[in-house]
Amino acid sequence: MAWWIRFTAGCTLALSGLVTPGSGAWAQNVQIASLTDVSFGTIASVAANRTASQTLCVYSGVTNYTIRATGSGSSGAFTIGIVGNSAAQLPYTVQWASTGSQTAGTQLIAGQGSRFTPNPLNLLCSLGSLLASSASLIVTLPATNLSAALAGNYTGTLSLMVSPN
Amino acid sequence: MLFIAKNRVRSSVMVIAMLSSVLPVVSAHAATQGTIGATSTGTVTINATINGLVQISNLSDLTFTTLDGTTDAQLTENVCVWSNTSTRSYTIRATGDGASSAFTLASTGHSPVPYSVAWANSSTATAGTALATTTASAAFTSTAVTPLCVAGASPTAKLFVGITGANQSTMVANAAYTGVLTLLVTPQ
After folding, report:
1. Are B2 and B171 a contacting pair, CB within 8 Å?
2. Assigned CATH class of B6-22+52-187
3. What is the pLDDT of residues A8-53, one digit of tens each?
4. Inter-chain residue contact B46 with A148, CB threshold 8 Å
5. Measured at the alpha carbon of residue B84, what is the angle toward residues B47 and A145, in degrees to the nearest 5?
6. Cβ contacts of residue B11 below 8 Å, gap of 6+?
7. β-strand pairing of B54-57 with B6-12
8. Domain count, chain A
9. CB-closest option in A30, A50, A149 to B39
10. Owning domain of residue A36
11. Most CB atoms closer than 10 Å: which of A159, B7, B156, B179?
12. Which of B29, B39, B54, B82 to mutate to test the interface with A (most CBs of A within 10 A)?
């Protein structure tokens, strides 16, 4: 029964975001989900940009949302590094699109918020609404940065915070 | 007086990308999903492995035009070698196109003429380390930090090619001698 109640509340919230402007505490909620790790694999040529894009879910109970991306580099920079070699840093770029399956979007600046409008079908991620409430995350390793990078295994974390706007 | 019409050593560019000892990253992390709330935060791990890579560039053909049959002759050219390894090191292996990969110039109907090859990892060097055909050199270090020496010192190395006076004396006047020298660079 408890599960049913929560499910009902979720549906109500979903319809609120879909049909009418949100109101009340629940309507101010947001969610980002369906994220997957980004692996560029083994790079044997540094002459071209490497891009990885993914479709994920963003729900916003209000008209717009802000996405703020922060890297694990110094001062939140978008860089990945070689473990044990702090001097080896590989900068990357982050783009965001408010629809899914995109390979280009709005460039994000590390630590700064960017405002987007959610999909018209703005459903809760928990309702399996990836197709409806989707967005695109595009991560690129520019050739110029690859050319200047040392050989090795690079890793880092990208944090994405969504807030109502 | 011995006249040599065109004694040419053509150097060919060969760029080799070699796997270094790096292995693909196995991430200890996995993406985290945001929960619904006043704000929601998710994270992704980003991984990339860059192979050990090198590139040799700025090579051009060499032509001996003033051989007199007695005086040792040497031509040089400044080239660029880039290596992305942590030490910026590389080895170079030179291969001639003579018999058994010998460093020789050929001329139809005439005996091949040996030449020597040396390498220095500075464009200002006045002498280099002699190279033996098909044998990798000891490691050299490049100062280039991007391919084609766009950044860092450019050029970074010097190629020396020589023909001794004694070998010149075996050459036939007005005959064209030619050969191909292949330079293989490997990251270290």
Report:
1. yes
2. mainly beta
3. 333 333 333 443 334 556 678 999 999 999 999 999 999 999 999 9
4. no
5. 55
6. B59, B60, B61, B62, B77, B159, B161, B180, B181, B182, B183
7. unpaired
8. 1
9. A30
10. 2-164
11. B156
12. B39
